[in-house]
Structures are given as C-alpha cells and as structure tokens.
C-alpha cells in the first residue's frame, strides 16, 4: 500500500476539476447555437489538455474519475450535431479506459441516446485498435492491488468478454470485422499478453501486482468456448517466454491458479489441448493439479475416465504432464490404478462403448510408458491382477476389436512388468490401431531425443553378431573371375561326350486327385499318414467332384458331411478352411434334407469345438443362400454360388460380412417401398430353399436354452449364440416367399424376446438383424394378423435399444428396424384406400 | 530326337519298408558276388545278391529303428551302419557271421549321416553329429577315440549339421570335413586344428545333402529348395559359389558324384532321379520310375566300368537299379 500512497493522482488536481465542470455545463448547453458549439469545442479541448497535464488517465483520483464519468456520459447523451467531430472521439480514447468502456457500452445499450450505435461502435473499434483494451486490463489490475470492487469487476469482465455479441446484436450483424469473435479474441489475447508483460516488469521492479483480473477474463473467455482463439495467441507466446525465465513461469502459474473454480475446467482443458508437449504444459501449469482440487478432478478424473473424445496427443500431454514432477507422479500412479480398475471391470467392458475402451487403453499404455523401474516394482502385483482380469473379460468378448484390444494391452503390461521372465504373447493380426497402441508404449516423452541412437553403432553390432556372413558375401563376389578361369579350359573339360536323354517329360509334379467320390472318402478317412499329397489333392478336388456327381453324392451325402465336419488340417494347405467349407456347402446343397438334418443335430450335440459349431452355421447359411438364389440357366451355377461364399468367409471373423449382406438388402428394400411399384423381376425360377427352409431353421432354434455339459449357449458360449442369431436372421431373410415363413417368424420373435437383454452386444446385433429379416420376409398381413402384440412389444424394446444401447451398431440396427416398421405402417395405410 | 530315358535294369522288391540308404560292394575280385546293402525304415539292413537279385541276409541291429547310413570298411566283410536308435554299429560279416562287433552311442537325434574316411590300413576317421545340437564329433575307428569336436563360433546360429563329407586331398595329408548345416550354409573344417576355415551360404533352407570332388576342388549341395548349388574351393581354402542350377521340382534328398567324376545323380522329392554331367552340370536324364520320394542314390564300385550301376531307394519300398552312361 505504500506504493499506492505515493501516487500523485490522489492529490486533487486543481486544474482538472473546474475544466470538467465547465465541460459538463457546456454540454448541457449544447445545441443552443453556433456560439455554444464553439464553447463546447473549447471546453473539450481544455479537458484533453488538462488530462494530459495531469499525467494521463492513470493519474486520476477517485473524485476526478467520478467527474470524468459524468462528463463522458453527458458527452454521450449530447446531440450529434453539437459534438465537434474528431475531438469528442479523442475524449473517449484518452479518458480512463475502464470508465470509457463502460460508458460506451452503456450508451450502446440504451436506446435513443445521443450517440448513434454506429458512432459508438466506431469509437470502440478505434479503442480496440489503439490498444486501449490492454490499458483497461492493466488499470483494473492496478486497482485490484488496492482491492477494487468485485461486483464492478464482474460487470466489466462480462462486458469485455461479451463485446462481440453486444455489438453484433446492436448492429444486427453489420458489425466491423474487428468484432468478429475470430478477430476479437486474439486481440484480447494480445492485450492480455501486454498486461502480463507489464506485470512482469513491475514484479521485476519489486512492485506487487494482482493478476486475478486477467485470470478471470481468461476463464470467462474459455467458458464461453473461445479457448481456441485466445489460447491460440497466448500459449505459443507463453511457451516462448517461460522457456528460461522463472518469473514468467510464476506469472503463468498464477494466471491459471487464479481462475475461479467454475471456469477452471475450460481453461485447463484449453491448455492441455493446445500445449505443444508435456514439458511445455508442465511449464505453463506448474503444480496446478496438486494445488487446485477442481483442476485435479478435471485432469485425473474427468478427462480420463468420463470423457473419451480427446485425441491421443492430448492424452500424451496430460499424462506426460503428470509424470514430470515428483508431486504429480503420485497422481499418475493413482490415475493408472483407476484406469486399470475400469479396464479390468467386466461390467465396464460390457457397458461402455468401443471408443471409450480404446481411449482408456491408450491412457493405460501412455501411463505405463512413463513408469519407472522402482514404481513398477512396487505395483507389479496390482498390475498383474488387473491385467489378468481385464484380459479375461476381453477375450470373452465376441467382438474381435475388443479381443485384440485386450491382447495388445495385456502384452504391453506384461512387457513392462516382466523385465526378465517370459512375456505374454498373443497371436493376432497387426493393424494400424494395434501398431499405434504399441507405439504409445515404446515412445519416450518428447523432450528425450528418441532417434538419437546412432545408426552406425547399430550396424556395427549387427556386424559383430554375424561375423561370417559378410566374409562369405565377399567371396561370392570374387566368384566371377574364378568362373572365367574355368571357362577358359572348356575345350578339354566338357560334358559333350555325354548325350542327354529326352527330358521333355520332366514337368512340375502334380498329384492325381481321385475321380470318384467314394475314393475321396477312402483317402480322407484313411489313417495312412504318408498319403499327404493325395490327401491334399483330394481336399482340393472334392467340391467340383460333388457338384459334378449329384447322384453319387446323394448315396453317401451324410457320411461325407460327417467326414468333412471332422476333417482337420493335416498339412498346411493354402485356404484349407475355405476348401472344406465349399465342399460342405456343395454336399449340403446337393442333398439338403438329410444333410441339414445331420448338421443341425450335430450343432447341439456333445463333443464339438466352438469352431466346428460355427462351421456348421456358416455352411447352413451359405447353402441356404445358394439354394435360394436364382441361378441363370445352370451355366453360371458355380460362380454364382461361389461369389457370396468368399465374401462371407472373409468376414466370418466378425459380423461385418453378415451384416453387410442384410444391410444392403434392407437398403434396397426400403428404397423400393419408398418409390412405389417399380419392382424389377429377376429371372424367375422356383426357390429351391422353399421346400427345405424348415429343415434348416427349426432344429437350430429349438434347443438353444438346453445347456449341455460341453456347450452352454446361454452361458459362456455367447459367441456361438451371436453367430446363431445372425444365422437365423439370414435363414429368415432367405426364406422370403416360402410357405414356412410365418411359422419361422413366430418362432424367431420368441427367440428374440427371450434373449433381448443379453449382455453381449454381438448377440444383440444378431437379434436386431433377426427382427430386420423378419420384417422383410414375413408378409405384412401375416405379421399383423399373427404377431401384432409381440411386434408392439418389440417396438418398444427397439426404442429402448436405439436410445440406450452402449453399442453403436446396435443403436443403428434398432433405428433401421424402427424405420422398417414405420414403412410397414405406411404401407398399411395405403392398402385400404 | 533324343532317346527316351531308359527303364531300370532291374528292381529289388521286398524290403517291406521305405529304403533310406544304399551301398554297393562290387569291387572284389571275380569269385566274389557283387552285393548291395540297403538300410530300411524298419531297421533292417538287407544284403542283396546282385546276381540272383535276392536278399542274402537281413541284418537286424538297430532295434527296428530306421537305418539311414551304411558303409563298408575296406571290404564287404566289415560294415558300418547308423540308425535312428542313436547308435552306429560295426558289423563283422565274414564267413557268414552277422554280428555287431562294436557300437558307438551318438546321442544325436537328427538324420545326419556319418562320414567315413580311411586314413591308413585298418584305421578310419569317422565324422558324426554329436549330442549337442551344433557340434560334429570326429572319432577314430576302430579304437573309438575322440579326435576332436568341431563347434561353431558362439552366436553363429548354424543349426544342426545335416550332412557331412570327410575327405583328404591325398593319402597322408590333413583330413578336412565339409558340413552342411540347417541354416543352409556349408562350412569347411580343418579337422586336426578343429577350426572352421570357410563358410558359404549355399541355400535358404537346410542343406539336405552334399558331395565333393577333391580333384577338381568342387562340390555340390542340395536342399529342400528348387536349386542345386555348386561351389568350389580355392587355394586359400575359401569356399566360393561357382554356379547354381534351377530344378523343376523342389527338394533333393541325396546327391552322389560317380567315383570317376563324370556324372552325378540326385534323389528328388518329386520321385525322380536326375543325372547331370559333372563338369558343366549339363542335365542328362530324368529317371521317372518311383511313386514316392527317392531317398538315396548310389553308384556301384565295379572294377569294370561297363558293369557300373546306379541304384536308387525310395519311400515306395523299392530299389531301382539302372545302368546308365556305363559306356563312357
């Protein structure tokens, strides 16, 4: 306060006060005539001169400010004609900036005052361009050091931050570009920087200074959603300034610390998102998370566990920031614990979205990359437990992405905690996502120069490991001259006296495949291991053989189906699974009823692996598809059937292939209904699936709720249940226009109803596909006559799924179903009329 | 138009199991009957009388485990055999005896045939794969004393030895070993110093078989690939690639150069025997008789060149005997 007492402004300036009074009086007389106008101009000139003589607006005392305020207000009220052009604007621009700003905004807000809004905006524009905004901030900062009025400041903050809106509202959008938010807020940022510079100067001069007003402004701007504009200016400058200057660092820390709690989140988020690296973030925020509860909550809880939309860079910034200081490292460990808890909780796995799980996994990996050896040592057991739990419930999942995520994270954790022992290793296909995840683990924080390992060094090591190789390479280079030596003595050293025999028969070896189906059975069932080549050839030839000899196949169809179902890959044949599947499909389509009976009965019998059961489902679907699809005059019989086979097989790991088929058809159908009656007739042919659809469908749907000792569809074998649901959906779809379709639809609805709250999203997707195909396949009148009630129930369930399901695909499918139902309704309205 | 390839001279049936090794003993003077020894998967060594084409004796010394190496030691009365029971047996066959006189327990679990070299009258050196994976052991026979153990350098990662060829330039000079390894390289070892002289990577796959012509200092090796590799040895004892020869089908299980170094024969996984001229590796004939992988090829040691024979043993349990390029 000693510094304040010395300020000359407190001593009333004898010259300014009368001048101001005169000016107010002159303004009161304004409009009285030319003489009054001249007097006014002189009075304004006198005010400016006196103000300058007093040492500028900063020198004004309490009372003078009040007087000056009155003067400005009357100036603003004065009729336009009375104000001498050019001079009155200067009065505003040279006056105390806070006062001026308030008066200008007041006159902008009050209707019918002397000043035209455009004039006010013009002055404001000049005000901004002349850097008065920073003067304004600085003024308040100084006042604050002597305890300014908080309400007043709040008003001022509001006005500063909402200026673009005010102006725009007043001018109905015809505001000058400087008031566009994208221009205004960077300008405000610059002003803040200037003020911070002044603060830094005064701190260096040993003067106390308050930064909280600037913090408030910053907070308010951020909560208004203008982080991008303002921090885009502030962060790069502050990054530079704090590089080596600890006063600037302190200023920066204070700047963020003084932000009120209610705006803290927006500010911290803005900084974390915009800082170019964890080290910079650490410089800018200091130990904010330790000091401020709100910031701690935002950083350690909200951004990690509740939100999941942030980019990987943001995560890296955030966690890197936590790792860079001893105090914060305890937080890092706590965060890791909480992340792992979430990761390993099976209910979280089931009920959170795939994106969130990916986000959490990324966060875990980044945390791990920051852990140090002793920290790992103390937390090894916890890490191990969480890893085991998490990977268990992920491997249980039927979504491949989930499983892979579990495997990658578990591998990474095990890599970190087992520095010596064996490391967990799973088999999965690498893709961009897994590579990205693994990269997160190995990368070190940005300030350690990663690629500094000298290349020469590495190649030297490699050279040391294989000492003999380069040597021998050299030798092989040297081989050329040796050869020419040999070349020279060809005359007496040739094989010419040896006459070759005919070698035209020396072709690539081809194994002769069996020609009869019974031979195939013999080869495939034979236990003679040495006939591997023949076995391979048989597997390759079987499909075409079956298709060429339907009569012979029918004699042994069930036996052949049995053999194929149990056929294991003896040798490494390329595409063995596909070959076997195609042969199975061929057998099933050749003799549908007995083979379908056999396969469906085997699906529910003991002692099959899940893979075999899923094979059965695949084969049933492919065969049904082949039987139901119209073939063109028999000549494209094979290609027509094979094409979808391959597509399905590629997608057989996920539900994508299945869904794509159904989705496409749903799309086609929907469009057709919308357009009306433009039905394209395909080449007509009896649907071969018609007579056998029941054999495919009903045995499958009958026993799903009867667990066997080795197979529990409703329990842990939900992957197969999901496949079963998808299979039933496709069979239902393919059964369109068949006699059994209504009965099938009813059974299917019951099936769906029983399982509708299944926890596995893959199963739910299957159920939703079932509903789609039901709506598409069963004739409308039958749906309405036979299953109205069930349908209404289903509709409300679909509504629920659409709104609440954690899985995005489920929500989408539910929406599609509801649209289909809507179409159905529309159709119904059309029919009576 | 080239002549069609000849048919086998005769075929020996009756081993009852896949044939893994063949060895002729026809060099004896006139009253001696030319013999062919065959080792089969069932563990028997059959001694075939080449006059009657019948089995004279069947030797059972390897506990019914596959026999994959048979060599005579000096004459037809002393025989060495190696089997999958991890034993090398020395037989006394003189005067109708069929007894195992001595045996060496190799403790080696692979398929690497041992290699025998006569260094003096009644004294042989034998190279065999040893118990520890990468090592080769040299023994002196009949004393069974270990001469040395050849260990690759630490970290060389050669893998198991797959085939061995022990030879010396002339009688009395230092014995040298050529060994083909699992990683596809051939290494030249100085036996007396126990040190590798040169290494050459001939193949990407394990070397299945090799043979070496010490006169021309040139060798040939085959692997499970489609390529034959021919390499030479220069005066500095360095192995160099000489040329490679592309085959129609992959997989060579045995290579033998005829003792007169004019032709060589390969046993192919494609059931075929191939004959090449040794000097330029000119393809001469493809003998297609067997119906399964050919495991071994062997040339006879008839003193009269015109009687020379080629025999091949196959997984199809038959031994085909051919007379080819016997006139030259």
Automatic annotation (TrEMBL), chain B:
Transmembrane segments: none annotated. WD repeats lie at residues 200-241, 287-328. InterPro entries: WD40/YVTN_repeat-like_dom_sf, WD40_repeat_dom_sf, WD40_rpt. It comes from the Eukaryota. Pfam families: WD40. Keywords: Repeat, WD repeat. This is GNB1L protein. The gene is Gnb1l.
